[in-house]
Write a structure and sequence with these properties.
Elements: H1 22-51, H2 53-57, H3 69-87, H4 94-118, H5 121-144, H6 150-173, H7 176-210, H8 215-244
Helix pairs in contact: 1-4, 1-7, 1-8, 3-4, 4-8, 5-7, 5-8, 6-7, 7-8
Length: 249
């Protein structure tokens, strides 16, 4: 997703850095570290809410099984966090952006507890490992390839929009066939976006030293980069779960 904006005239396509590229590797390492921390936070809260009936009662009414007010907020709040971080990037400080990212990971994890209740532990683990392998392979390809993936990324972003529109339509149609097709396309789109996003982040890292970007802006870019990769991984995992997840009786 196009939420990282280079404020200078730096052209990442034509610029080729020399030397050890220490700052580039450091930038990418921070991005992946923040992403893994966010995934760990989400996994922890998803697990805690799925096994603790007291916590779960704050989200679901025990008798009827309907969502409480807090449960509704938990389901829809993540989108608000993403929009706030994306559009408030320039106004927010690096500390505020980091706090929002962690809060987003917590809310997301709580909402994922519903998924853990619907699917068997084995299928969740299997889909998680499959998503990890796919993400890792595409991240490596995005980092090492010399081919410019910009045009490819634009097509994939249009694919994301198409998937979202199809999901809204299928919300009313309830077509299992369309749901299956959406899940297949979703896996393909976000797997491809992983390579595109990693290459984009690599070039942003190369431009940081060239443009003498401040430490605060570098931290903010790291947070938004981690958000991009977090979304890529989560969506690969969720679409795989829709395809292959075994539901509980």
């Amino acid at each position: 997703m196009e939420i990282l904006n280079d404020k200078s005239n730096f052209n990442p396509i034509t610029y080729t850095p020399t030397g050890e590229q220490t700052r580039t590797r450091s930038f990418l390492a921070n991005v992946f570290l923040l992403m893994f921390i966010a995934l760990g936070v989400s996994a922890f809260f998803a697990w805690q809410f799925s096994i603790n009936t007291t916590l779960l009662s704050y989200l679901i009414v025990p008798v009827t099984g309907t969502l409480t007010g807090l449960g509704m907020v938990t389901v829809f709040a993540p989108l608000g966090f993403v929009l706030l971080m994306s559009f408030g990037y320039r106004r927010l400080s690096a500390t505020a952006l980091m706090a929002l990212f962690i809060a987003y990971a917590i809310i997301n994890g709580i909402s994922f507890s519903f998924i853990l209740l619907q699917f068997t532990a084995g299928s969740v683990l299997g889909c998680f490992l499959s998503a990890s392998a796919m993400f890792g392979v595409m991240a490596f390809m995005g980092y090492t390839t010399h081919q410019d993936l910009t045009k490819f990324g634009r097509i994939l972003i249009m694919g994301v929009i198409g998937v979202l529109i199809a999901m809204v339509i299928n919300f009313f149609l309830h077509s299992s066939g369309l749901d299956y097709l959406i899940s297949i396309i979703g896996v393909m789109v976000f797997t491809g976006l992983t390579a595109y996003d990693v290459q984009k982040l690599k070039r942003i890292g190369e431009g940081i030293e060239y443009n003498d970007v401040s430490a605060a802006d570098t931290k903010k870019m790291s947070v938004l980069g981690a958000l991009n990769l977090y979304l890529d991984f989560i969506n690969i995992f969720l679409f795989l779960l829709r395809l292959f997840g075994g539901r509980r009786n």
